[in-house]
Amino acid sequence: MLDELEVKGKDHTTGYDPQLFDWSADVDGNGCDTLNDALRRDLRSLQIEAGTKGCVATAGDLEDEYSGKAYGFEHGSATVDIDFIVSGSNAWQTGAAAMSAEELREFGNDPLNLLTVSADLIRQKGGGDAAAWLPPNESFQCEYVSRQIAVKHKYGLWVAAAEKGAMQAVLDTCADQPAFTREVAWPKPGESVKTESAAGESTQQSSTQPSGEDSETDSTEPSANPAAQEAADDDADASTAERTADAD
Question: Which domain holds residue 107?
Answer without folding.
Answer: 2-247
